[in-house]
# Entry
Amino acid sequence: MLAASRIILGAEILALRHRLLKRGPVRLALLAVLLGLAAVLIGGGSFSLGVAAARYLPQARDPILAAAFTALAVMMFVLGFPTVIASLFVGRDLLQLVLAPVRPIEIFIARVVLAMIANLLISSLLLAGALGVGAGSGAPPVFYLLVVLLVITQVLIVTAFQALLMSIVLRWIPARLARDFAAAIAGLSGAGFYIAWNLNLRQSFEFRTRPNLTSATSFIQQVGWLPPTWPAHALSGVIDGGVGQAAGWTLLTLGLAGLVATAAALLYGRTLLAGLGVFGGATLTWRRSSQRPAAVARAGAGSPLRAIARKDWLAYRRDIRRLSRLLPALLFPIGYAFAFSRPSRELSGFWSEVFLIAFISMFMSTTLGTPSVPSERRGFQLLRMAPLPMWQVIRAKVALTLPAVLVMTAVFGLVVALIERNPLAEIVELIALGMWLGVGFVAVGVSAGAIDPRFESTDDRRAVGMVGTLAGVAGALGFGALSVGAFALLVFALGALAGTTHLGSLPSTPVIGALLGVAAFILVAGAATVVGALLWAANSSLVRFEDPIAAT
Amino acid sequence: MAVPASEGPFAVEARHLVKRYGVVRAVDGVSFQVARGEVFGFLGANGAGKTTTLRMLCGLVTPTSGSSLIDGYDVFTDPMQAKARLGYLDEEPFVHPHLTGREFLDYIADLYRMPRGAERQQRMERLLGLFELADRDGELIGSYSHGMRQKIGLASLLIREPSVLLLDEPTNGLDPRSARLVKDLLEELAARGTTVLLSTHILEIAQALCRRVAIIDRGHIVATGTMGELRTQTGSEQASLEDLFLELTAGPESKEMIERLLAPKPS
# Structure
């Protein structure tokens, strides 16, 4: 490798080492245990799935591998964009490199390797699954070497392609819109792919003793010529003993990687300074279209709650980056609404609507609520210095997020209920459930962000640390399961009290109805406890917070 | 919104403040008092512990041991009372980049529950005018220069008239005109009874403004007092604050180091 690239990477590794050691031995050990557990559970699960797929669905081996490689390429493309932008186009340290006698190609190599590390972490899932397919198919040893080579090559292709795309974007799109444009493209393509995927495959895995892979394989066959599937064809060739096929697809993949990386390196050299110009300095050029006269001040006491809500609203409106990230987030619930309302499903209409509402509420709350505290950035210190208890900050964030989530959930629920022609009583039940879930999920989402905020992060998607993310997922799943369980018990209890519900082996009597009602109440109390515990943890975390927040 | 001060002689008290980060003692037993209406200088080299001490005084950093009192209220056990009286300006001011200057002042005023109305509005306009930010009304703070951020940060403190100001390098990044404005403003505020604790590298400002100074070196207070007291302590009657500072912080002689650096290489 080129000397300067090695020096740049060496410095990054040293910085990473310092960041890790700063955490202290206990937190480091905890992190290692968590990562080890995740590797065993997720990696082991992925490997087992690969083994099972290869053993029980040998005819679908190629489509399964192709689907896995394609899905991971899309995931890397969508999730990895901020990393590529941060590694190759942002950062004051890049200015130092530009001023030093270092060739752009050397900066490119070092920074692409750095950006690849994040994508490689995502790809470890694919690696484990593909190794499982090999093990399940009794593949020869060369398969395992080839898997590693092809996964790394796939990561290189995607990363270099992202760098290439950004280099082009910076040449053709007005500078101040470049990052937003890239984020929107990545988000929309990811969401579009996900929805298409969901709609095509949903039928294949629903409530049948054996999955029907017809639609899956036909979908893969339609996209089998796309580059992300080439490594899969090479690996299938190795398993089937087709040396020519394996060598051909491998060479094609390696050739493509070389081509994309070279093109990206050449364009990057020409665009590096433009990128630094866009991302390195202040990008906020927003100006009011006309100077409005100062509003006449309203009388009354100043309200911190209103101040935080108004500030957040203005910041949201003026930050195109945050708005562009909302767009794909909104597409997911729409996709799910379509998927759930497909006539082929075998679950009762009412209960699929319950799950739809629960999903949308959880999704919207996570998207909007979780980054709401960390998005204060350095401004959080103003809140800490104000005579303002931290629980009021949390309350303000919940109050601002709640209306959007409730409206979205109610609209989706209503639309689906009207399509399904639910009776009025069921619509009322669904809306009531939506309101309850909205309040709980938003509180959980906001708490998750407050438990482990990353105030220095400029990207909302990275604004919460691992502890907060885990707390949020666990809290949302716990609250959701308890709430939906309570709702189900309540519906059955009402039916039993009226004597109109069939409860399997249980008699539909008022006593059983009352017992179900009590059980529902216990579950509701459990759900409220989950939310209360998270709010308490969030408040404690914010009260204790004292890390310096770097100026970003 | 000036909050009435509690009874007692000192507006700011640092009591045996210690802050440890792992094995490193960033601040080690710092104690001093600032009287009401006094402008007090807090001096020290880079990394000496000035910012950590100020952040412990305003409640952003919890001390490992010791306590911080503002107008007699403990910042950590009685935070609402202490914070209502306190204004802190960080060396990199905490601002919201997506708000305009006027919106930011409005936000701060609401956070501190200042009554809305014409009086607040007029005060805001006066401050924006004073810091020459009134004609930048349509611009977001994110597009401000460092000096302009410093000015809006100062304005956000002054809008609510705190009785104690803790300022970390307030003239950092300001042009000479604005630096002079800040200096005059602090003098006027002190004359009207506001207590100012000022951390600065610019010793001329400290010498001109501060009645007393404390010098911190590697986490320890090495000297506290008026210029006269410091001169007596060091035994150098004609010394300037710069001479006293260099003597008390006792680094290697810069002239000697420069000569060593620029010495001809052995052939």
Observations:
- The first strand of chain B starts at residue 10 and ends at 21.
- DSSP finds ten helices and ten strands in chain B.
- Residues 176-191 of chain B form the longest helix (16 residues).
